[in-house]
Amino acid sequence: MDITPLQFPSLSGADALGSIAAPSTAGKVAPSTGPDTEFGSLVLDGLDRLEGLTDKADNLAVQAATGKLENIHDYTIAASEASVASQLTVSLRNRAVEAFNEIMRMQV
């Protein structure tokens, strides 16, 4: 089973995120990683990838429940990937909210 790593622009600490598997992006245009890349497009791309991981896990869960899944470990791996990606997304959101609140508390 091939696992395609996520591609992130060179951000500090982003190298550790490369080991998270990404869903197949066939037919999608990958975001550019140049200096003109907008932060919002990176966030949307990450959310799309998270949705793809959860959809894959959900589809494999249905196949496992109906007895059509030959290798149950495929579901286990997909569910673990979706869980880790969800935890990472929630952590990033929490840190972004904390940073925003800290900026709002600054004296002008």
From TrEMBL:
GO terms for biological process: bacterial-type flagellum-dependent cell motility. GO terms for cellular component: bacterial-type flagellum basal body. It comes from the Bacteria. GO terms for molecular function: cytoskeletal motor activity; structural molecule activity. The keyword Calcium does not apply. It is found in: Bacterial flagellum basal body. Transmembrane segments: none annotated. The keyword Cytoplasm does not apply. Keywords: Bacterial flagellum, Cell projection, Cilium, Flagellum. InterPro entries: FliE. Its main location: other. It holds the Pfam family FliE. HAMAP family: FliE. Belongs to the FliE family. This is Flagellar hook-basal body complex protein FliE.
